[in-house]
């Protein structure tokens, strides 16, 4: 898959995720941008360019679901994949509504690739 022009933004307060996920996304042929917080993403030039979001659910300040709701309020319906270490968050129906997938950390490459293919209509 060579989709280097496809911008995938990762928003996660976990530094290890911000360091490892971009390499994997590049292996998939995608163009990753990472952000430590929802506010960093909202202030960036990438808000209008992102073709897919990978959002941590539980972050200090604004959560992943709150960021998604804010983007929807602004008229930006960006395909979203949630990631979380908290199984109880992942099972809440209001969190899953309109979301491509909710992956539990640690998730496998195949699960992420499948979710990205659905989010970006690459199959």
Question: Could you describe the 3D structure shown?
Answer:
39% of the residues lie in helices and 20% in strands. It has 123 residues and is of the alpha/beta class. It has a single domain, classed as Response regulator (Rossmann fold, 3-Layer(aba) Sandwich). The longest helix is centred in the N-terminal third of the chain and has 13 residues, at 15-27. The chain is globular and about 30 Å long. The N and C termini lie close together (10 Å). The relative contact order is 0.17. The model has no long low-confidence stretch (mean pLDDT 91).
Largest sheet, in brief, is:
5 strands, parallel
Low-confidence stretches: none
Distance between the termini: 10 Å
CATH superfamily: Response regulator
Please report the total strand number as a whole number: 5
User: Count of DSSP helices?
Assistant: 6
Mean pLDDT, nearest integer?
A: 91
Give me the CATH architecture, please.
Answer: 3-Layer(aba) Sandwich
Roughly what fraction of the amino acids lie in strands? 15-25%
Secondary structural class: alpha/beta
- The CATH topology, please? Rossmann fold
Overall number of domains: 1
Shape: globular
Task: Note the main attributes of this structure.
123 residues; alpha/beta; Rossmann fold; 5-stranded parallel β-sheet; 6 helices; 20% strand; globular
């Amino acid at each position: 898959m060579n989709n280097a022009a496809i911008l995938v933004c990762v928003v996660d307060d976990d530094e290890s995720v911000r360091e490892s996920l971009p390499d994997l996304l590049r292996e998939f042929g995608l163009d990753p941008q990472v952000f430590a917080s929802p506010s960093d993403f909202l202030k960036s030039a990438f808000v209008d360019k992102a073709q897919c979001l990978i959002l941590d659910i539980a972050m200090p300040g604004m959560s992943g679901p709150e960021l998604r709701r804010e983007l929807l309020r602004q008229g930006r319906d960006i395909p979203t994949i949630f990631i979380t270490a908290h199984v109880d968050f992942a099972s809440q129906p209001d969190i899953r509504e309109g979301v491509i997938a909710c992956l539990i950390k640690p998730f496998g490459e195949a699960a992420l690739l499948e979710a990205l293919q659905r989010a970006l209509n690459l199959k």
